[in-house]
Amino acid sequence: xxxxxxxxxxxxxxxxxxxxxxxxxxxxxxxxxxxxxxxxxxxxxxxxxxxxxxxxxxxxxxxxxxxxxxxxxxxxxxxxxxxxxxxxxxxxxxxxxxxxxxxxxxxxxxxxxxxxxxxxxxxxxxxxxxxxxxxxxxxxxxxxxxxxxxxxxxxxxxxxxxxxxxxxxxxxxxxxxxxxxxxxxxxxxxxxxxxxxxxxxxxxxxxxxxxxxxxxxxxxxxxxxxxxxxxxxxxxxxxxxxxxxxxxxxxxxxxxxxxxxxxxxxxxxxxxxxxxxxxxxxxxxxxxxxxxxxxxxxxxxxxxxxxxxxxxxxxxxxxxxxxxxxxxxxxxxxxxxxxxxxxxxxxxxxxxxxxxxxxxxxxxxxxxxxxxxxxxxxxxxxxxxxxxxxxxxxxxxxxxxxxxxxxxx
Length: 409
Hints:
Elements: H1 21-29, H2 32-38, H3 45-68, H4 85-96, H5 113-120, H6 130-139, H7 149-157, E1 166-170, E2 172-174, E3 180-182, E4 187-192, H8 200-209, E5 218-223, H9 228-234, H10 238-243, H11 246-250, E6 278-281, E7 283-290, E8 297-303, E9 307-312, E10 316-317, E11 322-332, E12 336-345, E13 351-362, E14 371-376, E15 382-392, E16 397-407
Parallel strand pairs: 4-5
Antiparallel strand pairs: 1-4, 2-3, 6-9, 7-8, 8-16, 9-15, 10-15, 11-14, 11-16, 12-13, 12-15
């Protein structure tokens, strides 16, 4: 006989005792006379006798019911009359395809969680909360997937909120001030969104606690959320932005991805070095430094004397009488008058004409993105793009990044 809980009926209280589902079903299949006689003095001796005999069988029966499942898809009646014969059979098949509660880590009784974890090779932390143990099974962070990028990301997600965005980037570390920087082969950085990371320290703690860290590696964590400047640098046109997913927009600039069909194929973003770029005027040289918008590198020029300075982009091949959209990112240390030019050359590098675009005063310390549509004249085969900054003083700097040029579709 099952042991009554505090809220269950007891002998003499006038209520029918609560037994196992199996006992209840068998009891109500007996002739009515048995139940009438059993209730004469409100003790239900016969039902309690059945419960004592069938308690273990009832538990087994309940487990079988839970394994089979009892959550079919859709209501049983009425059946949808508008479906064809094949569609109706699919609908009925979906109803038969019920979910087993014991195989569902969200709804399974807590006592069954170690069994579910064992099926996946997952390791449950006995000190973890029930919710975290369920997350360990849902994401299967440890066990057979332990050490993989997806397992590390899933382990980190247990410490996050919202969409639980997490990305694992090998061979990078957390950069000073946010974002990531180049590391070595033993570095792995986990990137999460700042707005979804209530406790940054808990992210690495979740990964270590779940036992998914690969042996020998050094784990890092940073929060990241792409700014409008970074999104604009990586997706320079509205067509590019519309084609990107929300996740791609959120991680724009985290690591470098070449812009499709970019005519600047030589160091458009200074990710490797400054090869192909040149300086003139009060600028003695241009070099690569860490930082920027679309990856880990950007170009920086330092002014050596007062006056006008110009930076020349890598030479690109163009088609005559064709329109091109062109843009780049610029950040000046002081407010300075800025414009950029396209010198059109023929196939022998002979100058044809020049086209200038006035940007105006670039704000101090802020990224901005000059852009224009340029038209290659008849006979043009190459374009030499350069940016000109006026009125600079000694030791001023300005940064360049994410140069882009593409034929207008």
